[in-house]
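User: Show me an example of a complex going from sequences to structure tokens.

Assistant: Sure. Here are the input components:
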Amino acid sequence: MTKHVYDFLEGNGEMRDELGGKGANLAEMTKLGLPVPPGFTITTGTCMAYLNDNRLPERLKEEVDAAIKTLESKLNKTFGSQDNCLLVSVRSGSKFSMPGMMDTILNLGLNDQSVVGFAKLTGDEHFAYDCYRRLLQMFGDVVYSIPKQRFELKIKAMEESAGVLVDQFSIEQLKELIVEFKAVYQKEGKEFPQSAREQLDVAIEAVFRSWNNPRAFTYRNLQNIDHDLGTAVNIQAMVFGNSGENSGTGVVFSRNPSTGESGFFGEYLINAQGEDVVAGIRTPEKISTLEDAMPEVYQELSGLITTLENHYHDMQDIEFTIEHNKLYMLQTRNGKRTDKAAIRIAVEMVEEGLLTKEEALLKIQPSMIETLLHAVFSEAGLKDGEAFSKGLGASPGASIGRVCFDAVKAAELHQSGEPVVLMRNETSPEDIEGMIISEAIVTNHGGMTSHAAVVARGMGICCVTGCEQLAIDEEARTVTVNDVMIEEGTMISVDGTSGVIYLGELEKVLAEEDHNIKTLLTWADEVANLQVYGNAETARDLAVAMDFNAQGIGLARTEHMFFGKERIKEMRKVILAEQDDEKREALNKLLAYQKADFEEMYAISQDKPMVIRLLDPPLHEFLPTNINEIEEIAKELKMNASRLNKQIKGLHETNPMLGHRGCRLGITFPEIYEMQAQAIIESAITLRQKGIAIVPHIMIPLVSEQGEAAMIRPKLIAVIEEKLAAANIQFEYQIGTMIELPRACLTADKVAESVDFFSFGTNDLTQMTYGFSRDDAGKFLGHYLTDGIMAHDPFTQVDEDGVGVLMDMAVKKGRQTKPDLRIGVCGEVGGSPESISFFEKIGLDYVSCSPYRVPVARLAVAQSALNKTHIAQ
Amino acid sequence: MTKHVYDFLEGNGEMRDELGGKGANLAEMTKLGLPVPPGFTITTGTCMAYLNDNRLPERLKEEVDAAIKTLESKLNKTFGSQDNCLLVSVRSGSKFSMPGMMDTILNLGLNDQSVVGFAKLTGDEHFAYDCYRRLLQMFGDVVYSIPKQRFELKIKAMEESAGVLVDQFSIEQLKELIVEFKAVYQKEGKEFPQSAREQLDVAIEAVFRSWNNPRAFTYRNLQNIDHDLGTAVNIQAMVFGNSGENSGTGVVFSRNPSTGESGFFGEYLINAQGEDVVAGIRTPEKISTLEDAMPEVYQELSGLITTLENHYHDMQDIEFTIEHNKLYMLQTRNGKRTDKAAIRIAVEMVEEGLLTKEEALLKIQPSMIETLLHAVFSEAGLKDGEAFSKGLGASPGASIGRVCFDAVKAAELHQSGEPVVLMRNETSPEDIEGMIISEAIVTNHGGMTSHAAVVARGMGICCVTGCEQLAIDEEARTVTVNDVMIEEGTMISVDGTSGVIYLGELEKVLAEEDHNIKTLLTWADEVANLQVYGNAETARDLAVAMDFNAQGIGLARTEHMFFGKERIKEMRKVILAEQDDEKREALNKLLAYQKADFEEMYAISQDKPMVIRLLDPPLHEFLPTNINEIEEIAKELKMNASRLNKQIKGLHETNPMLGHRGCRLGITFPEIYEMQAQAIIESAITLRQKGIAIVPHIMIPLVSEQGEAAMIRPKLIAVIEEKLAAANIQFEYQIGTMIELPRACLTADKVAESVDFFSFGTNDLTQMTYGFSRDDAGKFLGHYLTDGIMAHDPFTQVDEDGVGVLMDMAVKKGRQTKPDLRIGVCGEVGGSPESISFFEKIGLDYVSCSPYRVPVARLAVAQSALNKTHIAQ
């Protein structure tokens, strides 16, 4: 037979499913012997039964009767008695905390008669009538949905005529107020039930119904809380903090929730009920002053706080009431805290022996670390700031600069020493130079994984994307949002976390070095199974990744090495020149550039592996589009400009993402990959000669067919072996491939025959698996997420059901051919904490992410390892 | 122990692997008791052993010795004897016929002494020395690779000085020629071996080596013949057709290889060897005249031909020699024939009881049928035609018309009654109206499955794509290839099979109705397991598909219904209008158009299923791009033109193929799909009311996620049920989905929950699996095919290793959820004969292809069924 009611003595802290969080905690505290006013909990299951059947379960009445009986006998009072009435509070409490979402009724059990008896009993008529008017107010609101305002207006009116505030009303005034409140009921066609038992029954139903009120429903949607959990109802004997000067109520945290500092933190009010603290009529006292005010109570409280923290192994948020010098604990729960505090608390609890390192690691959300590594605007700044527009917070940070609409203008202002914010409809690799020098990047189009977002995160530059309101007029050099227009050069502030763009300069707070994070990450590394690598485009990125203790570089892109102002000219010659010697000359220049780049990078990465990806972007990205550039290059190549223009048009692609890129370039322009291989091996030789044990890792992108790797690999090897022989040196090198097309996954057993390692490129893999591009999906992906067609953006969290199936298949097939094949992931989701345990599950060796995400990933891989162990146990 | 040598009496026709085609046939004829000069075959395995080890196997010499002994004893002659010498021919013969690729040596065994004996033996000194000089010539070429020319120059010189041709040289002149030939040997540092046995050994090695000569290697690559098969060597006693007027040689086909007509077809020469027939010095006689010339021989021959045809159940191509009135059979093989003849022969052989229907079906290549259904240029026309350019034969046919560079010009000329050829860099759906009225379509870019190619094949319009030489100047209205420029309006001829474009009008031959094809296809339908559906865009397509006996329509596209001149305006309003009523009004107009379209189509398809795909193309395809159109629509919608222009630019997509299309439109513009559902159900109701049992099949395109189908399906059902209720009628309807994205395959079990049928869209599936688009792959796919990176174009033949794995997975997962789920394929490869057996293997129910491919597919599915049965046995 289903049990609907649990006495606090019957439950425990594990029973959150049945009793809700509050009920379970009350039971747990009771079990621990803490001074909790007695009471009982009606289960969440009862709530769901009620909501489904539209009536309370039959046996509930009996069980409640029995529970009340127990309560009466414990307290020696009688529920509904005129002379010695038992009063109770009725509170909702679901499995997950839903602050402010549901309601509380205090003082339930009073009526026109018992209030008189209660006055006698407590010897305080004022107190008794005050309790009664509060009951009427809360009951009307919660049970009959009478707008709170109706009651408040009555209070206001009487305050005005009486010339005092409500807490100073005379007994007569309170009685008058009670009459007025009853009139409010009547006007709504309701009546306040005089029977205590009836009060309780309708209150229980009201709490159950509140589970489905719109506020609660919306909150659950936002927080991804299941709508089928239901709420429990906690019925507890009242204790009164408003029983005089030796009474009071307060809230205390076992540590500072803002900084994490140890020591109690909280406040209390003498002669008050909990709601008075919230209402803010009087200013509460700091908890430390309680030591002087009520030393014995303070001592007891402080012991209990420590007991609770030790019991829960977490910082506690506690509500207590003092009634005539007697302390009661009303609630305890794990306290909310800032990210900074969370980390400090976790680390210090380990030092105090309260937590193991493993427990501490599991208490921190990886995303907390990311926020802490970036500068933020001060709270004051944010409060005063004038918002201009809002997009997606694509790369965290708080940056200030002058708006520029293109890379040229950005460079110009930058050179004159001004900070700049690059604002574009969208960015492309040609904007790289402008992006590097910008404090922040803002784009009109694109999502969290657009080009701008990816590059910015890679470089730790603040970035806001998908700021769709921006109407950029590149000719007039202005940008307009609604009716606000600003000109190029205007100073703006960009919050890369919230995505808000402000006019003017907001005050900033710099992120300080946090030794607690360092400590935590050291512990993380100790338990991790997966290694964490960083992705890097430049020596600067690389240095950041190394600073953050990346175990290697999982993706060193070489694109930007072709996009520099001088370099792109040479690249264009390679593509467009008709004479072989012109091509060769251009390639030689590029070779020199690349060698220098790689030497610089190897000097930073030292003997940690660095996976260099051969050239990947679509051919057309290198080609000039404006006629001046075309004429210039035609001149250099001694070609006819209009003919060259035609040639360039001929290279136009309808879907560049699906076009002539990746290893397809390596097949049709083998000389480019051969040049890159030469640059890599020659720079490695240089460093080897200095005694640094470089092991070059060369990665072929966009393989869909073993034949591609099988054709390219020997050409690379030929170049490498030739250079090694010429330098009279031998060392290990590896040639691997990106696995970023569905077909590469499906045929990974064959692909593995021609390569030494795999690295998943989840961006392309996700694009192809779903058949939509990151750049173009913005127009419908938002729709999909809000309509619940998709649970999350597959570009920020791996799609386990689709993309993940292909990845799993590729790992299995690859290792079927080469059991020791080393496999990593270097796409955007490589650093996604939500994805990392999946990557561990399918057997990857490492994840690689943008440098600023390395610390986040280090924590996430540790958690994944710990969870795996837990599950395995 | 490996056996290297087989006497003709030991082998048989099944031993093509070991003995090669020629050797197996000689053995088979011998076994049948036909008059074959005795001989033996050295196996293909011996060849591979020789090529691998670079020397002949040890035991070979003994086995050859023994075989020669047998031959000597049979013929009572001695190999290498001076007085009574045995002469042999040495011929190569691999498993697959490689015409002209390898070499033959005749008269082997002669030397300076034995030629004297041979003269005495035959009583014909001239003949003997002629045989000897031929041996020297052939041996020098084959064994020592002495250029043939060296010998021919000597003959030429002597012919000039003698004043007669070689066959009239005197004995003295022949002897002189032999001396000259020996001088040629000497000059090359070679000597002609006088030992018959040595001649034979080096000849055998030479034949083996010829397997790897460049010609042979290239041919095998072209024909996809394995390089590891090796060639056999056939050594056979010589018979001499050049032994006088009662001797001769000839070639005869058992039926006419050009028309398929029954009755012998061939020619012969009196007093000649086979090579003389080829050399063309004398004109051969028709085979029928042999009946008068040598009645007995003719009668014997004709009996043998019938025997052979009956034995091989196929038309035979036979070589014979007559020596002193005695008939010898030297070779028989299945004769090459035209496609037309092949079909006639197969059908007539069934009627004659020589073949079963099943055997006949397996004898015809499906592609043969396609060629026969299209008009062709006459041979004379092709011979005289002046080629202008060449691309890919994308849709067969022979068409003539005036060049137009856009749809507007095409319409203009067409209205004035001129035939037109639409020539564009590439086509897009906006060109549809111009394409429909064109005789042929030619595009600069794109491959066999580009938009132009797909549409053209769908409509049976001749088409050449990827004609990369064309430099179209749209302003000057000219097109230039190399230095030849022609103007718009110039008459050209387009061969959609060869891909060649000719200047002017070539003579055409119309395809006639072929009752043999009809008969064959009727038999095909009897054995098929898979059904064949057609894809159709218009009522015209639909009618063609039905004429070709399609069992349904697997893909009725609705795009063109939105691209008509008036219609696209309304569609643009739906996308761009700001006012709901304008949108609604435009939708209502589109509804009326669509209803009329569907009624027309249902009237043709009748009760055969027709799968209508909801709107699919990227949004931007509907949007105007030139400013006039934008202004016009802005006016109609009372919008500001420059604002509208901005809005349109905002809808621009970087990769339209990966953008806002397919069911993504259905999610963001639900009203469009709802309108389509209404049009479909209302037109079906109209036809139902006329007593035609329409079962609407509605297909949702581009699903990547169950949620999409789950969101769209109930909306369609709501519209349908409302209309059915309003008409007070109930009938079955189905809602299915295209499976065309990798993720749909990977999650097919879930997708199946929300749909009634699947249809594979292999074009998109292939694009996404490989990560390249058909439109853009042209720049590298050719490279891939010629370099052997890919074995075939995955857009024309299904990629079993990649795309096929996904398809197989989708079928299994789909039927795991719904065991009876009906599944077809409607992408380009649906009609590919090479793909159909794979589709049968993975369990599809039907294939759907462009209407003109339906007959091809009908034959292919029959063959697939027959092969499956064979394999099963």
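The lines above are the inputs; the final block is the predicted structure for all two components together. Residues 580-605 of chain A form the longest helix (26 residues).
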